[in-house]
């Protein structure tokens, strides 16, 4: 039986329970492209991805030297490298190809050096821009790495977080040691270096708020005045305004460099949990929540619905103006007009949960039906000629589908088994 709690696997202080059957079910809907169904031909013919193409994205990192290139870590689908602002995304072949990638870090001193923090395989490193990956977990004892960050002023110093605290490497990930002190045995969800202040790094925790280090993670002190001990889902920094932003399970907070206390930015969304806060030019902020995406703007300041997308992550290329949104489940979108319109940005990313596949002649057109996290998607049965047929939502459902069966004698009738009944 599949683990229907798979969608609760969420970086940011929430539970993460994914078992092997779930991973197998999630690990892509593939169809063999063959003309004759011989066993020999089937063995020699590679599997081709045909969709539905969409992504549950857990982590996102831009190349600091080439911002139109970025990396996305997916739920049980490994890592993708995207070029031309997401025009094409390529799966990175690795030992963690079917794992969940919680964190990605690019070395600012050498952008060809990458690290990933994974759910089941600890830490991996690439020195050629993602072409090849090697394990980099010596001394990192937890199975799950929640986040990873490279000191922007010293590429040898790398921090990784876990459910039992922070681990530190001083030799570019070759060896790790746990940092003793107040974060020991503490679930740390997010790590953030401040590039323009050498040695300054923050850690967001589950239940203990924010901690600060001024020596690149060697020692830590609590930094919760005005914030309190709460679940911190993400930390971001606005270099233009020198403001640190904290998205928490209870609201949105900011602290200006040099200020002794945090300021509550929740305003008209008091009690609303935030998944991510993205600073914008001019001082406004876009906030990702489970109930939609909001912009903090106006005078007096208030949160205004910017998009009804229930969002986990946000990222913007300041040069091009494109903004990417990773939704809570199953969509990776972008906008080039400040939220007026959105388009699917998962070009080549296929890690959508597919629990069932069926074919059916509907209205004279043979279609492939896929039971997904959001109902039934369909595509024309043309995969032999078109390796990436366009998919469309046929029957939206409020939950995942695990079985699809065509009626044996009534044309066009399809039955679906849903996790909600």
Parts with pLDDT < 50 across at least 5 consecutive residues = 1-42
Q: What's the pLDDT, averaged over the residues? A: 84
Radius of gyration: 22 Å
Based on DSSP secondary structure assignment, what is the total number of beta strands? 36
What general form does the structure show? globular
Number of helices: 2
Strand content: 35-45%
Mind describing the biggest β-sheet?
4 strands, antiparallel
- Could you say which structural class the secondary elements and strand pairing correspond to? mainly beta
What is the spatial order of strands in the main beta sheet? 3-4-5-6
Q: State the distance separating the first and last CA atoms.
A: 15 Å
Helix percent band: under 10%
What does this entry look like structurally?
The structure is a single chain. It contains two helices and 36 strands. It is mainly beta. The strands form ten sheets. Strands 3-4-5-6 form a four-stranded antiparallel β-sheet, with no helix packed on it. Strands 7-8-9-10 form a four-stranded antiparallel β-sheet, with no helix packed on it. The two termini are 15 Å apart.
Feature tags:
421 residues, mainly beta, 4-stranded antiparallel sheet, globular, disordered N terminus
Quick structural gist:
This protein has 421 residues and is mainly beta.
List the helices and strands and how they pair.
Blueprint: H1 20-26, E1 30-32, H2 39-44, E2 47-49, E3 57-62, E4 70-74, E5 79-83, E6 88-91, E7 101-106, E8 114-118, E9 123-126, E10 134-135, E11 147-150, E12 158-162, E13 165-169, E14 177-178, E15 188-193, E16 201-205, E17 210-213, E18 221-222, E19 232-238, E20 243-248, E21 252-256, E22 263-264, E23 276-279, E24 285-289, E25 292-297, E26 302-307, E27 311-316, E28 323-327, E29 332-335, E30 343-344, E31 354-362, E32 365-372, E33 375-380, E34 391-396, E35 401-406, E36 414-418
Antiparallel strand pairs: 1-2, 3-4, 4-5, 5-6, 7-8, 8-9, 9-10, 11-12, 12-13, 13-14, 15-16, 16-17, 17-18, 19-20, 20-21, 21-22, 23-24, 24-25, 25-26, 27-28, 28-29, 29-30, 31-32, 32-33, 33-34, 35-36
């Amino acid at each position: 039986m599949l683990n229907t709690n798979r969608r609760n696997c969420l970086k940011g202080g929430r539970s993460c329970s994914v078992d092997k059957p779930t991973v197998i079910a999630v690990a892509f809907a593939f169809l063999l492209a063959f003309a004759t169904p011989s066993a020999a031909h089937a063995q020699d013919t590679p599997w081709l991805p045909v969709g539905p193409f969409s992504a549950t994205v857990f982590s996102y990192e831009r190349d600091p030297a080439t911002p139109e290139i970025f990396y996305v870590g997916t739920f049980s689908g490994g890592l993708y490298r995207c070029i031309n602002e997401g025009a094409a995304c390529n799966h990175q072949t690795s030992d963690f190809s079917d794992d969940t990638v919680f964190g990605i870090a690019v070395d600012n001193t050498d952008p060809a050096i990458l690290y990933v923090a994974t759910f089941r395989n600890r830490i991996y490193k690439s020195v050629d821009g993602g072409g090849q990956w090697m394990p980099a977990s010596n001394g990192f004892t937890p199975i799950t790495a929640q986040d990873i960050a490279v000191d922007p002023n010293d590429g040898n110093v790398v921090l990784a977080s876990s459910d039992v605290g922070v681990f530190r490497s001083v030799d570019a990930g070759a060896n790790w040691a746990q940092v003793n002190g107040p974060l020991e045995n503490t679930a740390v969800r997010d790590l953030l270096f401040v590039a323009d202040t050498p040695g300054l790094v923050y850690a967001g925790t589950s239940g203990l708020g924010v901690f600060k280090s001024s020596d690149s993670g060697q020692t830590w002190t609590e930094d919760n005045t005005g914030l309190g001990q709460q679940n911190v889902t993400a930390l971001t920094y606005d270099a233009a305004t020198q403001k640190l932003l904290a998205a928490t399970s209870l609201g949105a907070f900011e602290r200006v460099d040099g200020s002794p206390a945090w300021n509550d930015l929740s305003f008209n969304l008091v009690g609303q949990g935030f998944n991510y806060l993205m600073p914008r030019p001019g001082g406004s902020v876009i906030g990702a929540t489970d109930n939609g995406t909001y912009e903090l703007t106006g005078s007096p300041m208030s949160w205004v619905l910017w998009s009804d997308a229930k969002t986990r992550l946000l990222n913007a290329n300041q040069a091009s103006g494109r903004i990417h949104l990773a939704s809570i489940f199953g969509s990776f979108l972008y906008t080039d007009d400040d939220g007026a319109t959105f388009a699917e940005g998962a070009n080549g990313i296929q890690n959508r949960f597919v629990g069932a596949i069926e074919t059916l002649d509907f209205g004279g057109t043979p279609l492939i039906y896929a039971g997904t996290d959001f109902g039934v998607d369909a595509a024309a049965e043309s995969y032999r000629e078109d390796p990436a047929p366009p998919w469309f939502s046929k029957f939206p459902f409020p939950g995942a589908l695990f079985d699809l069966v065509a009626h044996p004698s009534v044309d066009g009738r399809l039955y679906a088994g849903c996790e909600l009944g």
